[in-house]
Amino acid sequence: MMKYTNNYKQKIIICAAGILLVCAVLFVAKFAKRYDSGPSCLTRTIPVMGTIAEIKIYGEKEILQKAAESAFESIKRAEERFSIFGEGEAAKLNSAKLGEPFRCSDELWKIFLESRRFHSLSGGVFDVSIRPLMILWGFYRKREQIPSDEELKAALESAGFEKLKMDDAGRSIAFTREGMSVDFGGIVKGYAVDLAVKELERHGIKSGFVNIGGNIRCLDVPPPGKDFYVIGVRHPLKKNEICGTVKIKGRALATSGNYEKYVFLENKYITHIINPLNGIPVENMLSVTVIAPDAITADALSTSIFVGGKNLAEKIAKEIPGTEFLIIQGSEKGEYEIIKIGSSWNECGL
After folding, report:
1. d(Cα 180, Cα 161) in Å, to the nearest integer?
2. What are phi and psi of 178, to 5 degrees?
3. Is the pLDDT assigned to residue 9 strictly greater than 90?
4. Is pLDDT of 141 > 60?
5. What pLDDT does 57 receive?
6. What is the torsional sign of CA 245, 322, 199, 37?
7. pLDDT in tens, 80-120
């Protein structure tokens, strides 16, 4: 049997410890390299359009900040242009004289073309010329009473997309009725989300999402380690709860709800979503959530289906591939019905 001196034993112990230390360093280095090679994540929010815009993106750390800043700038530019308050282009259009053509920028003209498309697709229940009715019901100017029949008739005379004079050759808009004006609230958030996504993609971002007040668009690549983006659908009766979830990627989602904006007139709860065909705020509809190929479509259709209901949703689902609908409606008896059109909806209940 070989005998070891104490000095030799110490050398063996030191050598073994050294080997273990080297192995440990190599393991940590390998793990750290694997960790560092994974995508970084950036989340930012800003107040905009009367709500909060959120961007969450994954990718190379060096480009995330620049991509997010560029996306937010596109959102803020859209807000400035399409706000009906201040000095933006939409506000200037609403101040145009009766019958006087207003030459639109390329961006404003694009919004009018999209608005015309959704107006036709929805059978007239999507209508950006609805502002006189919004004013009438007290959403811009406070009032205490429900409008009279005479007031309603007068406001309807000043509303109606078909009363806008669109000159396609000159790209101009002219109001043909006294008191006409527009409000892009049912479409511009979705449009801004699409602009922001385009900016992210321009910077090479492939994973993440943009959310402006519940108007969400997810990029094609899910978050690291996930197969989809899981989005909660807000409970229409309980503010801080969800009533279900949906899994999507590469698509957009938007919700219109009776809880978003409302007034009380004569002790009656009045939602801000008005049927432009009769001038009456929609009743017994709690919320509509739409999945669509892009955010502008989801935004416009959520408003349209809130007014048009199940029949319109079924029609549009056949005409626009990739659209799905979750409709939650009530009744005067306090009963609720959940209607799902499409296969993406998970369990949902009130």
Report:
1. 10
2. -60, 135
3. no
4. yes
5. 98
6. positive
7. 999 999 899 999 999 999 999 999 999 999 999 999 999 99
* Residue-level pLDDT at 37: 54
Q: Where are the beta strands (DSSP E) in the chain?
A: 40-48, 51-59, 102-103, 164-167, 172-175, 207-212, 215-218, 229-234, 242-248, 252-257, 262-265, 268-271, 274-275, 280-281, 285-292, 324-330, 336-341, 345-348
Q: Which residue has the higher pLDDT, 225 or 348?
A: 225
The token duo for 77 is 């530019």
Q: Give the mean pLDDT of the chain.
A: 88
CA distance 272 to 283: 10
Strands 252-257 vs 207-212: parallel, antiparallel or unpaired:
unpaired
pLDDT surpassing 50 at residue 135: yes
Structure tokens at 121: 């697709």
| CB-CB contact of 263 with 308 (8 Å) | no
Quote the CA–CA distance of 300 and 82 in Å, as a whole number.
Answer: 15
**Residue written as token pair 């999402």:** 209
Tokens standing for residue 311: 């029949």
**Cβ-contact 161, 128 below 8 angstroms:** yes
Which domains are delineated in the chain?
Answer: 38-84+185-219 (3.10.520.10), 86-183 (1.10.3980.10), 228-350 (3.10.520.10)
Under the banding of pLDDT at 50, 70 and 90, the label for residue 297 is very high
* CA–CA dist 221, 21 (Å, integer): 39
Cα distance between residue 318 and residue 314, in whole Å: 7
**Buried/exposed 294-329: b ≥16 CB within 10 Å, e otherwise:** bbbbbbbbbbbbbbbbeebbeebbeeeeebbbbbbb
**18, 27, 35, 223, 265 from 22: Cα distances, Å:** 6, 9, 20, 35, 76
Tokens of 343: 């296969």
